[in-house]
Amino acid sequence: MLAVGAITLLAAVLRFYRLGHQGFWFDEGNTALLVHFSPGKMLGLIPQTESTPPLYYCVAWVWARLFGYSETGLRSLSALCGVLVVPVAYGAGSKLISRRAGLIAAALAASSPLLIWYSQEARSYEMLVFLSSVSLLAFAYALEDPAPRRVTAWVIASALALATHYYAILAVVPEAAWLLWVHRSRRAVQVGVGAVGLCGLALIPLAIGQSGTGNASWIANAALGRRLGQVIPQFVSGFDGPAHSVLEPLAIAVLVVAAALVFFRSDGSARRGALIAGGIALAGLVLNLLLIAGGVDDLITRNVLAIWMPAALFVAGGLAAARARRVGLVAAGLLCGIGVATALGVAFDRNLERPDWRVVARALGTHAATAAGAPERAILIQHYRDLLPLSLYVPGLHFMGGSGATVSELDVVSFTAPPSAGFCWWGSACNLWPSRAQASYPVPGFHTVSRRHELQFTIVRMVASHPVRVTPALVSQALTATHLANDGLLIQR
User: Fold this and answer.
1) Coil, strand or helix: which one is 183?
2) What are phi and psi of 141, to 5 degrees?
3) What CA–CA distance (Å, rounded) separates 489 from 487?
4) Bridge partners, 380 (sequence order)
5) Phi-psi domain of 267 (left: phi exceeds 0; alpha: psi -120 through 50; beta: other)
6) Which of 38, 71, 307, 388 stands the most exposed, by the fewest C-beta atoms within 10 Å?
7) What's the CA gap between 112 and 339, in Å, rounded?
8) Distance separating alpha carbons of residues 478 and 482, to the nearest angstrom
9) Helix (H) or strand (E) holding 16
């Protein structure tokens, strides 16, 4: 218990440290916006703006009113879920494999750079990890003895996981199938699996409605092989970090060692438990491929986080093998060390973090005309056509209509860093396409008064001696390397 407590404390430090250091990025901006509405309006907007079920947002709605709407306040829900994953990992590993495997699984969860990243994001993914891990823990108990109360615990955990994210099915379906196969004659198991199935079926109309909005259609545009090839490397070493080209292959080598230890150095029940956990993870991945074959292609690493815990238990089972204690401990320490080093490297490198629109808001606010009755100001964001998340920090933003507006200030925002991968859902270039600021913007009536560089952004401020009528067509004529069709021209009232 002391060891579990120490590992849990480490997890808390890694997750809550600098929790509000990064601003909201686009996806988090949707969460921050939704929780400001009334419950009824929020639930009505979720099918239009999100591609997940509503449980996380309902909890976040209450959470924000208790702990605030700031980055720290909203993200602390995910951070707490990330901390709670650690003792659950110990419990699941201990029940399914051994106490030694449980400790290693807890350490892997605490130091995982992937789980740390999503523990610091105001989205549903870390809650998915937590609830699917609780489901796995309940599954381990029900597999041993399918008493009604144990099966009921599995049903509740599984239903909550499904209500958090549709891809919880990657863990829940293999668990249900295994319980039915082993205890097919037990009434409690039959009823429990049926109840979970009904919960899943109840979510289908919402899922179909959300699929029609195209909120996740961008995923299938990337090559499946590329996305599939990212899962294991990102599971073990996160998205990016210092010395990633060295640490990632080293972490994958540890996985190979762990798999070999499961088959050649584990004993009896420990090997069986590790193979059950690995089988659930593998079955979940196969189920995802079957969904893709059926036309549902949302496979990216964050959407398969439900199988992170069973995969981690398989690795922990190998590293805890009774006939390879020294090798297993060294390998486990190495894997945890890689995770902590990567997570800390990201925490102190702005080039690896989320785009921070707060610096843009501060730069714009410094020069904003805020006096009563002052003319509106126009803001051009190159290669970006969304109000979020800038509108969270600069109130009163809306898109300029074709007829234009009369303004005395025109600000141009560009994102000057190169793209991290061209296709991503994390890091400093996520949801942004690079666009270098021009040497000048010849918009009639305006002259440049300042050019500021803040993190990855460049903000050019132009003012006019008297209010000028600005239209999208007029601004488009001043652009050389870009076209206004790809840019966002906003107005701040």
Assistant:
1) coil
2) -70, -45
3) 7
4) 412, 489
5) beta
6) 38
7) 5
8) 10
9) helix 2-16
pLDDT in tens, the chain (493 residues): 999 999 999 999 999 999 999 999 999 999 999 999 999 999 999 999 999 999 999 999 999 999 999 999 999 999 999 999 999 999 999 999 999 999 999 999 999 999 999 999 999 999 999 999 999 999 999 999 999 999 999 999 999 999 999 999 999 999 999 999 999 999 999 999 999 999 999 999 999 998 877 777 888 888 999 999 999 999 999 987 777 889 999 999 999 999 999 999 999 999 999 999 999 999 999 999 999 999 999 999 999 999 999 999 999 999 999 999 899 999 999 999 999 999 999 888 888 889 899 999 999 986 445 444 556 899 999 988 889 999 999 988 999 988 899 999 999 999 886 555 456 777 777 777 888 889 999 999 999 999 999 988 999 999 999 999 999 989 988 888 655 556 778 887 6
Length in residues, the chain = 493
> What are the percentages of helix, strand and coil residues in the chain, rounded to 5?
60, 10, 30
What Å distances lie between residue 470 and 11, 159, 363, 400, 405, CA to CA?
52, 53, 22, 9, 5
Joined tokens for residue 275: 């193979």
H helices present in 212-267, as ranges? 224-237, 244-264
Rounded CA-CA distance 148/155 in Å is 10
| Residue 491: strand pairing partners | 378, 398
- Residue 350 tokens read as 């702005």
Strand partners, 451: 460
For the record, the structure tokens of 173 come out as 């379906």
The whole-angstrom separation of Cα 128 and Cα 313 is: 17
**Max alpha carbon distance in the chain (Å)?**
84
By CB neighbour count within 10 A (0-12 exposed, 13-18 middle, 19+ buried), where does 67 fall? middle
The helix-helix angle for 71-96 and 26-34 (nearest 10°) equals 100
CA dist 162 → 133, 284, 285 (Å): 12, 14, 17
Instruction: Identify the bridge partners of residue 412 per DSSP, sorted by sequence position.
Output: 380, 460
C-alpha 440/C-alpha 443 separation (Å) is 9
Query: What are the Cα distances from residue 385, in Å, to 378, 402, 425, 471?
Result: 14, 15, 17, 16
Which string of DSSP letters, residue by residue, matches 318-366?
HHT-GGGHHHHHHHHHHHHHHHHHHHHHHHT-GGGS---THHHHHHHHH
Q: How far is CA 226 from CA 219, 229, 230, 376, in A?
A: 11, 5, 6, 45
Query: Helix H segments across 390-433?
Result: 390-393
First to last CA, the chain: 57
- Give SS3 for 258: helix
Place of tokens 């990201």: 346
